[in-house]
UniProtKB/TrEMBL annotation:
Listed name of the protein: Trafficking protein particle complex subunit 11 domain-containing protein
Record domain Gryzun putative trafficking through Golgi: where: 659-1215
Originating species: Hortaea werneckii EXF-2000
Biased amino acid composition, Basic and acidic residues: 110-122
Composition bias type Polar residues, residue spans: 37-47
């Protein structure tokens, strides 16, 4: 768009003057209108608002300036209907251009009197009817008209004035005078520019009520509209408030702005309806020339379209611009009626280009992307037809320049439109998700969705259009090269007749003249074609790269390099070609038709630029292609390099097969899939020449094969004196069995065209591992150069077969596995025997484990060994394993020398495991033979330990009677001693059913309870277990364990419950009498009451009567209250009792009372048989004890032996037999 006048292509935005906030530099604006003697000058005397708030206000207003905004509707701020403006801060004094031209001077008559004018109507200074106009008499438009409305005639003037609460009448009158002066000047100017005034105050109306009166006085004196003409801005503390005020202000004034341009549209429509203006008679005759009716229609259609753009009604503007194009190209239009050599025809063509540009811009604005492309293509076709019929034809450099410019304009419009779908990712390397979401072209809009749309009619991103411009520029350069030498001579040195002939032979529309298009001579001058091509290629490359289209980006750079080569700019071309060549993918032969031209061009440029390294590398690659200069030469590669680039220094270069071709292909394969340490494995290397050299052989100096274990095998060239026909195809090289990091063998590495050579050698490995072929490197080392070409694993030819010689024939043997690049080196089979002694089927928690490892040397000679033990598996509890040796380190012990067929025992201790789990550990024995200290051998023994809990326990808990007397409630001070617990003693029993879960028979030595923790101010004494002898316990067998303990509070006043945590400590051994093990079983926490009443029952035999027993019921009241209980003994058919059937008992605090009953069994023999007991009879007396106050029945507990409690039947008492 730079070729057209800037006002023609500038985006139209409503012009708003900001007066009173300071003036900004407008040097970037378009050129102003020529100075007019007449016009309107607006001058006010008020001071400029320069405080901080005014600057913030100006800043917020300038945010609504759309000069640098994208050309799309989505770039508009706020609501959808809001506009962008061209904000122009101005001083208090500014000028408006004259609306009408000055009247023509009248020639005096013969009698000395002036002749009355035939036409007194005055027109615009830029009208074709005004003699002083640039388009007088038959022009259509001038860029000055666009500049006038873009920069000189505002649609709105916003004037800012300061007002103060203490202003006097004189200052208020000055503001009124300035406002009235601006209104009057705007009215006299003839323009319908609107005026709005903003009054700035440093105080609000609430703080200064007199401000309201001042503002009312100003409004009355100026007759400003209170809604759209006069605004008051109180002090605002935050930028957000100012921004809100600005948005509200512009939203209110927007209808005024739209109405301004709507009035201009109506005026243009009326003038168009009049059919143009009558001819203007003046003293300066125009020779009958005037603007045609068609020209007037074009003029007013353009005006209406521009005013619609100001209103940002792009659909309306597009219709007017399309109508203007149709009028220009019609049979009566200027493009058809004026001769092509006329300047008016060129001006009309330029105007038509601009209008077509605006049509495309409007369609992009409203989202008609496919319509924009169709309009672009239609106008190109129409212009081509016009130039073919009326101009110089389409086979000129002028036409290709226009074609390039038109394509570049489309790319610029798309870029300025900033369509969201075409915005590239911010990341340097777009991800696959970004590329899939990114669009390279847009689908047709809904209105054209059902129409048959060609792919090129869909809107593509700017890079596509820049490529079209690039291609047209290439064609332009080609046409410029065809300019004859006589036409390339400057006109100063050419006859006038020849210069006139040039104007009839060349189309110079917006392009230089022939002698400037391709000057003679060009040497030392500037080739502007290449400058244009470099700029276009750079833009296209940037667009394609930003969207991940790297191949297209490289293609355009390659085409630029080809043009540079044609212009003999080899150094510049080489700078472009080397990155393309270095990153090109040449592995697929299908791409050779693309890669070969790139390679040939790079080789040629390297020769002219004397770049020896690139020249050598490309020459090496060109050996793979027929038809190249090197392949047609009879020379060898070293002779060719010496002849083309004579240099005293040796050339050194390195290439890689992943990017570059090689005339020698190399393939490798291991003959076996697996081998063992110390054994030899075969490897076959194949060299195949693809060189296009004729008689000269290609001599490879060295081939290096590198393996992943760090070893490198080199095959050095050693010439074979025998003829090439007598050389064997397969050569067997010496074996390489050492452990050196590098080894070399020698062979004849000269290769004729299409010749293949096979080399066999054997390798030995000293460590167990998976060894792969890492890479292979071909070296060509001569006195002129040193070239290295490396094949990575991915670029090596993967051979699925090896070739073997069978008598005089070479046969192919297919390998039965796919990965022939690797060999698995297995450890040397160890003959060391490992035996674990003392291992049990099951181990138990808290048990220490003692094992013994026996090592038996089965090798043919003595060994030196080291044993390492480590835990394996996924267990949460770690194992603590120690060697029972003095020289043992952390997990490692030096076994030392073990003779042939000898054994060595090592003890292993494992600490007790605290949690049940399946544990495992391994013992790794590393050893080597005395004769082979560099060949490590290894054997591993994995041992599993099943650790489980040996016991499980069920507990039953209850109180027992403590026979010690209780302290007296009435004499407490005499009961206690200093340092002793004063609380009531409580005796308890803990019964345990101990069950064995062990697979083995365990011997229980003892089972006692221990106190782990008690609550504060509580004393707990545990009675020693009376277990006298060892008890054998088998799997799933149970044994009872009875334990007793006594608790006592430190003070009688402490009524809180007691908490006791106990553990059952079991000491046991295995059946065979191993070391004693201690197992702790935690007892659930016991919460014991200390102040609640309870009833305990004990039994005593009556010494006088055999069948009688005495029941003692002990009622305890440990509380500090008097308690009353109702005691009732229920009758039974089994026994008779002696004692009160019902009685009430009152018990003092901290005391207990005993109630006795004597029982007599009715029929002892019958009951005994019923119970099935031989050691006594159990009876079930029922005694109810009810708290009279709380009506709570107390449970009767067993207080000693021969008394038990059943959950269902209650209390049972044993009567001895």
């Amino acid at each position: 768009m730079e070729a057209y006048p800037a006002p023609y292509v500038q985006h139209e935005l409503p012009l708003v003057y900001l007066s009173g906030l300071g003036e900004q530099d407008d040097s970037l604006d378009a050129a102003p209108l020529p100075r007019q003697e007449s016009g309107s000058r607006v001058t006010t005397n008020a001071e400029t608002c320069t405080d901080e708030r005014a600057q913030q206000l100006l800043k917020e207003l300038m945010k609504h300036d759309g000069s640098s905004r994208p050309w799309n509707s989505e770039a508009l701020p706020g609501p959808t209907a809001s506009l962008h403006y061209r904000m122009k801060p101005i001083s208090r004094t500014f000028n408006l251009p004259p609306r009408k031209a000055a009247p023509l001077p009248q020639a005096p008559s013969e009698e000395g009197k002036s002749t009355p004018p035939r036409h007194t109507e005055l027109h615009s200074t830029l009208s074709p009817l005004s003699p002083g106009s640039p388009v007088y008499p038959e022009g259509i438009m001038t860029p000055l008209w666009f500049t006038k409305h873009q920069h000189s005639v505002p649609s709105l003037v916003i004037a800012f004035f300061k007002v103060h609460g203490n202003d006097n009448a004189a200052r208020n009158e000055q503001v009124q005078t300035d406002i009235n002066a601006i209104r009057a000047t705007l009215g006299r100017s003839g323009y319908k520019t609107r005026l709005s005034v903003v009054l700035l105050s440093d105080r609000s109306i609430l703080d200064a009520p007199e401000l309201e009166e001042h503002i009312s006085a100003i409004r009355r004196a100026t007759t400003m509209d209170p809604k759209t003409g006069l605004f008051f801005m109180p002090p605002m503390s935050s930028p957000a408030e100012i921004a809100t005020f600005v948005r509200s202000l512009l939203s209110t004034l927007q209808p005024l702005v739209v109405e301004h341009y709507r009035d201009l549209t109506k005026h243009a429509r009326r003038k168009k309806a009049r059919g143009g203006s009558a001819s203007l008679a003046s003293s300066v005759e125009r020779g009958g020339r005037s603007l045609s009716a068609s020209g007037w229609n074009v003029r007013y259609e353009i005006k209406q379209g521009v005013f619609a753009e100001f209103r940002q009604e792009m659909d309306v503007a597009e219709r007017h611009f399309s109508a203007a194009i149709e009028e220009l190209c019609s049979s009566e239009g200027l493009l058809e009626t004026k001769p092509s050599w006329s300047s008016i025809w060129n001006d009309a063509r330029l105007l038509c280009d601009v209008v077509a540009l605006r049509v495309v811009r409007c369609q992009l604005w409203v989202g008609q992307t496919t319509g924009a492309v169709i309009s672009w293509g239609n106008y190109k076709a129409r212009t081509k037809d016009l130039v073919d019929r009326r101009g110089m034809g389409c086979n000129t450099y002028g036409w290709f320049a226009w074609e390039s410019r038109w394509a570049e304009i489309m790319g610029q419009l798309i870029r300025r439109a900033s369509l969201p779908a075409f915005q590239p990712s911010d990341e340097a390397v777009p991800t696959s998700t970004d590329l899939s979401a990114m669009r390279f072209h847009l689908p047709p809009e809904k209105a054209l969705a059902t129409e048959p749309i060609a792919p090129f009619e869909q809107l593509h991103h700017p890079g596509y259009w820049v490529v079209l411009a690039f291609e047209a520029t290439v064609a332009r350069r080609a046409k410029a090269l065809d300019i004859s030498e006589e036409d390339r001579i400057s006109p100063d040195q050419t006859p006038a007749s020849a210069v006139a002939q040039r104007s009839r032979n060349y189309d110079t529309y917006l392009v230089p003249l022939p002698h400037e298009e391709f000057a003679l001579p060009l040497e030392g001058g500037h080739d502007h074609h290449l400058s244009i091509l470099e700029r276009l290629a750079g833009e296209a490359n940037q667009e394609f790269d930003a969207r991940g289209q790297h191949r297209s980006a490289k293609r355009i750079m390659f085409e630029l390099a080809q043009e540079l080569i044609k212009a003999t700019c080899h150094s510049k071309a080489l700078d472009l070609l080397v990155p393309l060549w270095e990153h090109a993918s040449s592995g697929d032969s299908l791409w050779n038709n693309l890669y070969y031209p790139l390679l040939q061009a790079t080789h040629e440029c390297a020769l002219h630029a004397s770049n020896a390294g690139v020249f050598l590398s490309t020459a090496w690659e060109l050996l793979s292609f027929d038809g190249s200069q090197l392949s047609q030469s009879k020379k060898s590669l070293p002779d060719y390099i010496r002849d083309q680039i004579p240099t005293q220094e040796k050339i050194t270069t390195k290439t890689n097969a992943c990017r570059h071709l090689s005339p020698v292909q190399i393939s490798l394969a291991f003959v076996e899939k697996e081998t063992h340490v110390g054994e030899l494995v075969g490897c076959q290397v194949s060299l195949c020449s693809q060189s296009t050299l004729g008689a000269a052989p290609l001599i490879v100096s060295r081939v290096d094969v590198a393996f992943t274990d760090g070893r490198t095998v080199s095959i050095l060239h050693e010439e074979d004196p025998s003829s090439a026909s007598a050389r064997p195809m397969i050569s067997n090289l010496p074996s390489i069995a050492g452990s050196e990091t590098s080894a070399s063998v020698k062979a004849d590495l000269s290769l004729l065209r299409s010749e293949a050579r096979l080399f066999n050698f054997f390798l030995g490995f000293r460590e167990a591992n998976v060894v792969r072929i890492r890479d292979a490197t071909i070296h060509v080392d001569t006195d002129a150069f040193n070239l290295q070409h490396t094949f990575d694993e991915d670029n090596l030819l993967r051979s699925r077969a090896v070739h073997v010689r069978n008598q005089d024939q070479v046969e192919q043997y297919m390998l039965p596995w796919s990965d022939t690049f690797s060999v698995t080196v297995l450890p040397k089979p160890p003959k060391l025997q490992m035996t674990m002694h003392g291992l049990h089927k099951q181990y138990y928690v808290d048990e220490r484990i003692a094992l013994e490892l026996e090592l038996t040397n089965g090798e043919e000679e003595s060994i030196n060994a080291t044993a390492i033990v480590r835990q394996t598996g996924k267990s949460d509890s770690p194992l603590s394993i120690q060697w029972n040796e003095q020289n043992a380190l952390s997990g490692e012990v030096a076994v030392g020398k073990v003779e042939r067929n000898a054994s060595r025992n090592i003890a292993i201790n494992i600490d007790a495991v605290l949690e049940p789990a399946m544990q495992s550990f391994e013992i790794e024995v590393r050893y080597y033979l005395t004769s082979e200290p560099d060949t490590p051998l290894m054997k591993v023994l994995v041992t599993e330990l099943n650790v489980s809990r040996p016991f499980e326990a069920k507990y039953n808990f209850g109180p027992l009677l403590h026979t010690a007397p209780w302290p007296s409630y009435f004499n407490l001070s005499a009961q206690g001693e200093e340092g002793k617990a004063e609380g009531l003693p409580h005796r308890w029993r803990l019964g345990t059913d101990l069950k064995s879960n062990a697979e083995d028979e365990l011997s229980i030595r003892s089972a006692d309870i221990t106190v782990d923790q008690v609550s504060d101010t509580t004393v707990c004494d545990v009675a020693k277990s009376d277990m006298a002898e060892t008890h054998a316990l088998r799997r799933n067998e149970a044994m009872p364990v009875e334990s007793e303990f006594v608790t006592r509070k430190a003070s009688l006043d402490d009524r809180r419950p007691m908490e006791v945590e106990l553990s059952l400590v079991i000491k046991w051994t295995r059946k065979e009498g191993t070391a004693e093990t201690t197992t702790r079983l935690p007892v659930p926490r016991l919460q014991l009451p200390s102040s609640e009443p309870r009833v305990l029952c004990t039994v005593e035999d009556d010494a006088s009567e055999e069948d009688q027993v005495i029941l003692h019921y002990h009622l305890e009241n440990p509380s500090s209250h008097f308690l009353t209980f109702a005691v009732t003994m229920e009758a039974s058919d089994t026994f008779a009792f002696s004692g009160a059937k019902y009685r009430a008992l009152s018990i003092a605090p901290l005391s207990r009372l005993r109630v006795d009953y004597r029982l007599v069994v009715h029929d002892r023999d019958e009951d005994r048989g019923h119970e099935g007991q031989n050691n006594g009879l159990w009876v079930w007396p029922v005694l109810q004890v009810v708290d009279s106050y709380y009506q709570k029945t107390l449970r009767v507990h067993s207080g000693g032996p021969r008394v038990r409690v059943d959950e269902k039947r209650g209390l049972a008492v044993q009567i001895k037999a």
